[in-house]
Amino acid sequence: MSSMGDTYKEAYEREREARLLAEKVLDEKTREVQSSIDMIQFQFNDLMKQKKESDYLLAIAQLAKSDLDLAGLVKQYIMATVKYLEADVARYTYLKENVVMHGDAIGKKAQLPNYKADFYNKIYLMENRFTCFLNEINHSSLTNKLLESEINRVLFLPIKCFGKVSTVCEVYLPKALDIESDILDQCQVAGYQIGGMIEANINVKKLKSSYLELKTSNDKLKKAQSQLVHSEKMASLGQLAAGVAHEINNPIGFVTSNIETLKDYSSSIADYFVLSQQ
Predict the structure, then answer these.
(1) What is the C-alpha separation between 135 and 154, in angstroms, rounded?
(2) How far apart are CA 24 and CA 30, in angstroms?
(3) How many Å apart are CA 81 and CA 171, to the nearest integer?
(4) pLDDT in tens, the chain (278 residues)
């Protein structure tokens, strides 16, 4: 009986060890599968992030093919940036003869109070993108309105034109939105592209204006040249006419000056004929 008990005990121990080994292998396999799932999820998220970034930069690059003016380019840039960052509202300002002008707002809270003049002077001195929390802005009416919408910070994206900040875009970010720094850097890179497009548009307008001026000057020169050639032709024709008149006038003058002499000779001859007949 004792021998049978020992046999069962040994069998139980073997089964227990086998079960523990199987559980250990299963646990290792589970961890491997979970690790693979996590890796796949990470790669998927990374691919989606890259796709989103590529779509954003492609949308900005395609604006170079359009014939939009400054306001149109900035609006399209803001709309693409709001979509990329999943923000709710944005707007922009621009300098016109050193005066801050306000553009249209985009998003749910389109009607927002403007900042004070000293704050605009500050943000136009910034050459790179920066984020500012609402409690850092001394503007209670704007802050209260945005906090009601769960917005707690503003992303400022300056756009430089010919080396100077000419436009600043304001993107209002909600509290729940956690945005990595490299994503914000992409927004700034896109802003550089917009600045380059604006410079290109201004240069094209200048070239067109210069071309029109040159064309007008060329037309005037052609007209002046034509008039000069006509004047030279008329002068040459006048000289020719004067020469011909001179050549005609000489023999006429000779004939005219000798008519009196011819009259005298004719009178003498007539007298001779009369005397001869007598």
Answers:
(1) 11
(2) 10
(3) 8
(4) 456 566 777 777 778 788 888 888 888 888 888 888 888 888 887 788 888 888 888 888 888 888 888 888 899 999 999 899 888 889 898 888 888 888 888 876 556 778 888 888 888 888 888 888 877 877 777 777 777 777 888 899 999 988 899 999 999 888 877 888 888 889 999 999 999 888 888 888 889 999 999 999 889 988 888 888 888 888 888 788 777 777 777 777 777 777 777 777 777 777 777 778 87
**Tokens matching residue 186:** 């992409």
Token pair in block for residue 121: 């002077």
Strand partners, 272: none
Instruction: Specify the length of the chain in residues.
Output: 278
The whole-angstrom separation of Cα 40 and Cα 34 is 10
Which positions ≥6 away from 94 have C-beta within 8 Å?
70, 74, 100, 101, 103, 166, 167, 168
**Cα–Cα distance list, 184 to 28, 133, 189, 272, 276 (Å):** 40, 15, 9, 129, 134
Q: Which helix (H) or strand (E) holds 106?
A: strand 106-107
